[in-house]
């Protein structure tokens, strides 16, 4: 028979387990929500499905997130917009050339985001933003605008150093974004983007695209003067 001391220990351990479980719940809910939003889209995902996949009740979900919209915003912040501070710091501390920095940025994007389930958020927003203007405005402010600004800074760095030619940076940014978006969409579209007999190697694709972009960006030597 347990002694009073052992009963106290048992009760304390049980409380500790409950607290650990409680602390883990927001992360479990965000992971479950990301999976379902990417699988089914925002409109088709129901709050009770998210709760069930996370192993909690619907009521528990709403203790942490007041609505499905707030849950989606938390998923975006957890997986995308919350990481911009880290990425800006990396950019500021990078010591190599701007060409190497651009290649590093695109490859790192693939390793950390593009190859993960979080890349499906981009596809989701392109397909559903028109039906959810508030979420579209949120995504613009939290992801699109900071992301474009980060790429703009990389390109401006190259222009300032003389590596890259002067350009309209608005469209220069789109040149970099386009292959990244294609890769994210193709990853989450099954066979809809690529023929089955031509599998896409993401790393080869990225480096091929960066080669083409850098060829277009590089500063040209001034033409030699005509002989007189």
From TrEMBL:
Residues 46-65 bind DNA. Keywords: DNA-binding, Transcription, Transcription regulation. PROSITE patterns: HTH_TETR_2 (PS50977). It comes from the Bacteria. Residues 23-83 form the HTH tetR-type domain. This is TetR/AcrR family transcriptional regulator. It comes from Rhodoferax saidenbachensis.
């Amino acid at each position: 028979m347990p002694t009073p001391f052992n009963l106290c220990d048992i009760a304390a351990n049980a409380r500790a387990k409950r607290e650990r479980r409680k602390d883990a719940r927001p992360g479990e809910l965000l992971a479950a929500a990301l999976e379902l939003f990417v699988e089914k889209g925002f409109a088709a995902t129901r709050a009770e499905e998210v709760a069930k996949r996370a192993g909690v009740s619907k009521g528990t979900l709403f203790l942490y997130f007041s609505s499905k919209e707030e849950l989606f915003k938390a998923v975006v912040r957890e997986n995308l917009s919350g990481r911009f501070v880290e990425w800006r710091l990396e950019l500021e501390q990078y010591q190599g050339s701007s060409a190497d920095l651009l290649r590093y940025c695109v490859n790192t994007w693939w390793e950390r985001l593009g190859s993960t389930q979080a890349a499906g958020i981009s596809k989701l927003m392109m397909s559903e933003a028109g039906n959810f203007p508030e979420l579209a405005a949120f995504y613009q402010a939290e992801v699109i605008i900071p992301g474009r600004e980060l790429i703009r800074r990389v390109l401006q760095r190259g222009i300032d150093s003389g590596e890259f030619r002067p350009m309209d940076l608005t469209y220069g940014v789109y040149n970099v974004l386009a292959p990244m978006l294609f890769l994210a969409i193709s990853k989450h579209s099954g066979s809809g983007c690529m023929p089955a007999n031509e599998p896409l190697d993401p790393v080869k694709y990225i480096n091929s695209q960066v080669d083409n972009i850098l060829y277009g960006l590089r500063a040209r030597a001034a033409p030699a003067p005509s002989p007189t």
